[in-house]
């Protein structure tokens, strides 16, 4: 099979012909995450798969291909196991500063690690191009592979769509626990639907919102909090609502209301014209809580 056909999956029948890894040709907008590194990329593919096998001991068919051969600068590989196929591009160049600022500044980890991420030297782009239809399982597959790069000086996983990031060593500590990575699936704002707080000039209070829920076919949520001290309250609220919608396949729309106990009512509305800063890709619902 030619390099182009193998890498970009124009001939799906070739998977049976030569047993090569064939990305799913039906994926148009692959979900992705990125990884930033200290120093130049120096990745051993066999050691990478050995780490992945230790995380997924029940999977027997983990393998990789280098469709363009060994590259002098950066890397390009396909990794597959089960239904999953992940395309990995590596560049010995810093990640775009503007994207780092968007994804690192609102994240809740130490300033020391954030500074290391800002000063990173190289990065990888991971795209899900496999055959699993469940978006959460796609994200978890990307995450399982991402943590395997910690041994090669990886610093953080960046989710540009969600405007957030997490240190690789934190995710790796989850992966080392039984069913540990399910925490990410049960708490989407940690990495897959980022939780961002910001102040708007001439507006009293702190806007808090999610990003990236549209990747799951869900609306993002926002609320105007009184202070940063309410961060945990709204983080938990957004997480619970998104988890409920994803699991139940229920819908929420502007005008919906819900009793919250303690004589409080939650109502949903669309962003107003003057709330232009809330409008982006996908739907967003503003939560208002009234006594």
Summarize the structure in words:
It is a single chain. The chain has 2 domains: 181 residues, no CATH class; 96 residues, no CATH class. Strand 8 and strand 9 form a beta hairpin. It contains 9 helices and 13 strands. The N and C termini lie far apart (66 Å). It is globular. This is DUF4261 domain-containing protein. It comes from Gilliamella apis.
Topology at a glance:
Elements: H1 3-8, H2 14-18, E1 32-37, H3 45-55, E2 63-65, E3 75-81, E4 84-91, H4 97-104, H5 111-118, E5 122-128, H6 135-147, E6 154-159, E7 164-167, H7 168-175, H8 182-186, E8 195-198, E9 206-210, E10 220-225, H9 231-248, E11 257-261, E12 264-269, E13 284-290
Parallel strand pairs: 10-13
Antiparallel strand pairs: 1-5, 1-6, 2-3, 3-4, 4-5, 6-7, 8-9, 9-10, 11-12, 12-13
**Helix content range of the residues, please?**
25-40%
Average pLDDT:
89
Radius of gyration over alpha carbons? Answer: 20 Å
Count of individual domains = 2
Count of DSSP E strands?
13
Flag low-confidence runs: 1-17
Which strand order spans the largest sheet, edge to edge or round the barrel?
Answer: 2-3-4-5-1-6-7
- Topology as H/E string? HHEHEEEHHEHEEHHEEEHEEE
Biggest pleated-sheet summary: 7 strands, antiparallel
How many helices? The count is 9
Shape annotation: globular
β-strand percent reads 25-35%
Structural class by SSE content: alpha+beta
The rounded distance between the terminal residues' Cα atoms is: 66 Å
Pfam families: DUF4261
Organism: Gilliamella apis
Protein name: DUF4261 domain-containing protein
InterPro entries: DUF4261 (IPR025357)
